[in-house]
Each structure stands twice: as C-alpha cells, then as structure tokens.
Amino acid sequence: MSKNTNNKTTKEKVHSATITGITAPYKTDLFTRIVSLSPTFLLLLLILPVLGGLVCVLLPAFSWVTALEQTTVSLQGFHDLWQTPGLTQMVALSIATGLLSTLLAFVMTLMILAAFFNSVWLNRIEHLLSPILVIPHAAAAIAVGFLIAPSGMFSRLISPWLSGWELAPDGMFPHDPYGISIILGLTLKELPFLLLMALGALAQPELGKKLRQQYKVALNLGYYPITAFFKAVLPVLYPFLRLPILAVLAYASASVEMPLILGPNTPPTLAVTIMQWFNDVDLNLRIKASAGALLQLALTGSLIALWLGSERAIKTCFNGTLLNGKRHYADALWQKITAALTTVVIGFILLALIGLLMWSVAGFWRFPAVLPEQLVLLHFQSAFTQMSTPLFNTITIGIVSTVFAIVLTLLCLEAEQLSQKPLSTFTSLIIYLPLLVPSIAFLFGLVWLQQLVNNQTAFFNVAFTHLLFVLPYVFLSLASSYRRLDPHFAHVAASLGATPAKVFLQVKLPQLFAPILIAIALGLAISFGQYLPTLLAGGGRIATITTEAVTLANGASRRTSAVYAIIQMALPLVGFILAWVLPKYFFKSGKNSSR
Amino acid sequence: MQSSLQIKDLQLYRQGELLLSLDEQIAGGEILTIMGPSGSGKSSLLNWLTGILPNGFTATGEVWLNDKNVSHLPTHLRHIGVLYQDALLFSHLSVAGNIAFAMPQDNKNSAEKLNKKQRREKIEQALEQVGLAGMENRHPDNLSGGQQARVALLRTLLSAPKAILLDEPFSKLDTQLRVDTRQLVFEQIRTHKLPAIMVTHDYSDAEAAKGKVIHLDL
C-alpha cells in the first residue's frame, strides 16, 4: 500500500545502503531492498491505524455519522456528555487512579533501586518480580480482587482470632468508590514493569558500567548509598525511564480491565463508561461515546503533560540540592523502610497468587478457614470442556501477531545496521505510540475503518489489532540484544563473500537465538492478555481466554474465574520456559552452557 | 597530628588462594607505589582499601587511617579518595557542579558553613591553580582527556579526603600530558600532606613518586 508513494525514499535508502553499508553488488539484492523498506513500513503500520482510528472517532464526536444518517456537524454529542450524571466523579476517579498508581510504582521503583543498587538483592528482586510482568492485567486484577474481598485471603488470615469475624463482613473492597482497589492492582502490576525497564537500561554495557563507576565515585566522596543513587545515578538514568513511565501513566488512566474487575460500578471510571456507551444497543449513544473518547484523550494527554511539566519543575527546584554537598538524608531509615515495603509488596503478590491457586481447586471453603476443606479438580475439568475454542483462538492469534512482529522488528533492526545510522528519535517515539494513546480512544475508530475496508474475517482484524500492541514490546525486547551484536562477525563474513542475507540468516540470527525466543515469549504473553482489542476488533465473535476471564470475573463463580486466571498465567509461562530451555540445546554458545 | 595510612597484616585471597600480603605504613605526603603485572592483585588491593572487595575475594587485615581503625566502615564513611584511569566526571553536572558535588557541606577549616558564593569562589580559585580558569560552566564531555583528569583531581582533593588512592590514573594520557599531570597530582598530594598509594605499571611514575616501591609477583 505504501510502496508506490515511497519509491523516491526507497531509492534513496537503497542508495545509501550501497554507499555506506557492507560491500554489496552494484545492484542491491532483494534482501537489502526489503530490509531498507522495513523502517518505513513499521512507521506506517503503527501510525496509520492509530491516527486513522483517532480521526474516525473525531468525526462521530461532532455528530458526523453517515451510518445514522447524521451529516451535520453539531456539538450535541458533547452536550450529552456534559449532562452525564456523575461525570466529574468518573473523570476524578480516572485521574486519581492513573496518577496515584503511577506515582506509587515509580517511587517504589526508585527506592528499591537506591536501597539495593550495589547489593546482590537487586538481582534476586529482579528474578522474583520478572514473572509478574507476564501476568495479564485481567488475571492480576482477579487475583488482587480475591485477596482484598471481604471473604478473601486477608480476611481469612486474620479471622477470627484478630478481627472477631465469624462470618464474612460487609466490605468496601474490592469495588470501593475511591478506587483504592484499582490503585492497588495497577501499582502491583506496574512496579515490576518499571523496575525491569530500569534494570534493562542499566544492563546496557556502556551505560551500566559508567553509572556503576560513578556511583562508586560518589561513595568514595562520602555520599551515603541512597543519597549517592539519587544525586549521581538517577539524573542520568531517568531519561531512559521516561517513556516507560508515560506508557504506564497512559495505560493506568485509560485502562478498562482493571476498573471493570476491581472498580466501582456507580460511577465507574471514564474509560469503562465510554466502553459501555459504545456497546450499547442504542446506536445514537455512539456519538456521546465518541465525544467521551476525545475527553479521555484529553485526560490522558493532560496527565502526560502534567508529568512532563513536573519533571522540569523538580529539575529546577532541586538543582541547588544536587550541589549542596549534603551526603546524608536519613539514609539508614529509608533503607529499612524500603526493605520493609519490598517485603510487603512481594508478600502481597505471593499471597494473591496462592489465594488464586487455592480458589481454583477449592471445594467447600467456609469463611474463616485459611485452607479449603476440600480440594477438587472439578473446576479445571469443567472449564477445560468449554475452553477449547477460546484456547485455540488465543494461541493462534498470539502466534500470528507475534511472528509478524518479530519478523518486522528483525528486519528494521537489520536496516539500522545496514545503513549504519541509528533509528531516529521519531521512530523510537512512534514505537511507543500504541502504548501512549488510550486504546479506548482509537480502537473504536480503527474497528470502524476495518469494517470499511470490507474485511469480514474477524480473526484477521483481531490479529492485526493485537500486532499494534505486541510490536512495541517485541521491539524493545530485541533492540538491545540486536544492537549489542559484535559487528566484526558480520564484517568477517562479508569479506568471505557472504551476501547480506546470508550474514543475517547464518551469522546474526543464530547469535540471537535466546533473545528472539524471549521476545517471542513476551509477544505471546502480551497478545494472550489483550482484552479490549479482541473484544472490539472481533465484534464480540472471537472469544479468547482473557475475554472469557473478564466476563466471568464479574459474574460467575469465583472458582471458575480463578481457573481461567490461572490458565491466563500458565500460557505465557510455557512460552518463557521454552525460551529458557531451548537455547541450552540449540545454537549453544560458550556463555550459555555454563548457566 | 601526623596523618598516616596504615595497612596492618593484609592477606588478600582470591578463590581461596593467597594473592598478596602487605604490611605498610604511609605518612602524609608520601606516595607508596605498587607495581606488578595484570592479575597480581593491584586493583583488588585498592578495592579492599575502599571497602568494596568483590565476590570471590576475601581478606584479613586492617586499615588504619590517622590512627583510627576504619576496616569495618562502609565506603562512604572512610573518606578515602580515589583517582581512576577514567575521569568519571558526572555528565549531568558542569565542571563546577562536579567539584561542588564533592565539597563537604561544612568547611572543615572554619566554624561556619560556606555559603553558595564562597563555594563558587573556592571552585574558581582551584580551577585557576590547575590552569583551567574560566571553565566552570563547561560540560565535562567537552573537555580533553588531560583537562578531565585535572577536574577529577580537583574533585577528589576538594572533598577533603584523609588519604588518596591512584589507580593507574595517568595511563590514558599521552607522554607529555602524563608528565605534567603527574607532577600536578604529586605536588597537590605533598602540599595537602595526604598519604597516598599509587598503582601503576609504568616505571617513570614510580620514579617521579620518589617513595617506596613494592613489586607484586604473580
């Protein structure tokens, strides 16, 4: 679709590939031409659907909906929006949950990094928290919900000896009107993500080495460890965390799964309300929904702007503090607080998972008992009989979207190396685009576009939509490994007469076997956990494990939800186990075999 | 009070094998030179002195600084400055910022704290003394290797350390620069009467230090 319009840039790119790249025949081969087109293709693939989706929500917002035979621009949609009862509460809830959970996750991440920077605990915490990353938001919400429910794990642990409850009390949680449950769920999911992104940045050889040495210098100059981190390491590390933090903020303020499962119902967050309007039988509500989507866009945009503005403000305010020479800010106290909080967080997560596991095999489980009285496999068995179609859909959509994402990512990274120019900052920003724009804002428009292109296969639409969300994570995961490849291998191979395609397939890819497997596992995990894209792009016709899980969480028995949540977690786990095991048997490198 | 750095009965082990043993006292203004091939334990010695011995290494022995046992103190409380091969200037701070970062909050020589203006003046004076006048607001990455080395030296000295360790600090400088920077560093060490230990594999460094030289064998 884009190849014709890009002929000029294509030729330029090809030209530059021959001038600056590895020695190639006068007429560049097919491989190089495909590779040099890839970055443009990637950009278009990410920009067009998102922007197109936004445009297609813009028009209905102003009452331009040809399907409803309304072709006069009016502000009726916005008018209806303002009249919605409880609108301020919805907006306030979205803002509060989004901002507070991001802040909490960010601050905790910094504290953990600062307190354990030089110690072996950082590695251990990393290994403990990594699996949490692949738990889909829906499953995490279900697990947290069970933990804080009136008859959940917490109540059982302290009843009846501490609380005096013989029967499950009336409780606020999890659907409390202040959104505390939502904040809890979001923070527990986002904390490992931010921590792992920070550790990923520190794992870059140049940056990591430099920061660790400068940390040592600060210690030598008398700075206490936590202060040394904040004054010497953080200012340089923060820019690498900025985009992940903004992605977290965007998701938290516009997410649908978490508030659906953990949030209040009257009124829910803005995003949930918009979704309900879009799904309403009365099509006229679409106009109000589109207006709402724009409001959500403005909300998320303002939060992002607020965060960026605060960055500047803090930088100016604390400039003097950086240089005042003070080495010591009650570091010992903060160290202890952080250690305690980290234990609490990890304990929380473990308890939630254990609770989930127990619910899935629980027979009769009366209130104050901590362990179920009966253990049965009945729930798993009955779930499996109904699970075959969702399971099949989940796995196939995951494989299709991930494979496509991996291939495209590899080609783009190869293009970067062949042209010897790093990808522009613009490209790096666009890769984050599907994560920064609230999905509720552009997905409906995108779905409308997909229908317009007259594609009746829901499967293809869903896979394509999943691709938009899988691509950023796969790219981020592969980019650092790809860029760390020693270029000398490729040069030697080329001097021996290998074409770029041969170098790519026989020199670079084998070296990347383990990182590619990890990226595949990650992509699959992301696809398995998608809720809104599956629901909307499939028109409700495609059921996946996640869509079933969310539906069940709000209705059916706790035990069945627990089973589905566990399957949701087990699927990505299989992927990661394979990613860990396979490199030990195929394409072994000297380094891997010692693990 | 005569300043001194004392290494008491150090036995350094790598993977259980004895790597080196040392028992030395260095007076203020003196420079002890440690020489030896790679792998002989020179950097491990410095790591041990600053309290960051990595995994795989164990040691017995004590560090006494100005007649106080600092062996059980963590790095940031030992007040031992280190000059490394790389200047390792903080890239988020200017030249003046790097030096200000190192200055203590209280001025040890007088009863009042230095206010911002006085700190600024002290930094300017220090930069002039080493021939970097006017460079306060430059970004460290824009300086040449020799200039960075001098800023790193100022940063270490102005943190008022009680001893100073040099980890092959001149090996990245070309010959003439090496001679000049070395002269500067040694002068400052003698003026401030700091006990110093230098690790190097260059004989001319050892000669210029005019102190005791210890050879570590593998």
The CATH architecture assignment of chain B turns out to be 3-Layer(aba) Sandwich
Q: Could you name the CATH class of the largest domain in chain A?
A: Mainly Alpha
- H/E element order of chain A: HHHHHHHHHHHHHHHHHHHHHHHHHHH
Largest chain interface and its two residue counts? Answer: A-B, 26 and 29 residues
- Overall body shape of chain A: globular
**Helix content class of chain A:** over 70%
Element-level helix/strand string of chain B: EEEHEEEHHHEHEHE
**How confident is the prediction overall: mean pLDDT of chain A?**
83
Give the strand tally of chain B.
9
Shape by Cα distribution of chain B? globular
The low-pLDDT segments of chain A are 1-25, 590-595
Largest sheet of chain B: 5 strands, parallel
Q: Unreliable segments of chain B (pLDDT under 50, ≥5 consecutive)? A: none
Query: What structural category do the secondary elements of chain A indicate?
Result: mainly alpha
Overall description:
The complex is a heterodimer of chains A (595) and B (218). Chain A has helices spanning 7-20, 30-61, 76-83, 87-116, 121-133, 137-148, 153-158, 180-203, 205-220, 225-254, 257-262, 270-279, 285-317, 319-323, 331-360, 378-419, 425-431, 433-436, 439-452, 458-483, 487-495, 500-511, 513-528, 532-537, 545-553, 558-581, 590-593. Chain A is mainly alpha-helical and 595 residues long. Chain A has 2 domains: 1-74 and 377-595, Orthogonal Bundle (MetI-like fold); 93-373, Orthogonal Bundle (MetI-like fold), CATH 1.10.3720. In chain A, helix 2 crosses helix 13 (285-317), helix 2 (30-61) crosses helix 19 (439-452) and helix 3 (76-83) crosses helix 13. Chain B has a single domain (4-215), classed as Rossmann fold (3-Layer(aba) Sandwich). Chain B contains 6 helices and 9 strands; from the N terminus they run E-E-E-H-E-E-E-H-H-H-E-H-E-H-E. In chain B, strand 4 and strand 5 (68-69) form a beta hairpin. The longest helix of chain B has 17 residues, at 175-191. Chain B is globular and about 50 Å long. The termini of chain B are far apart. At the A-B interface, helix 9, helix 10 and helix 14 of A face strand 6 and helix 2 of B.
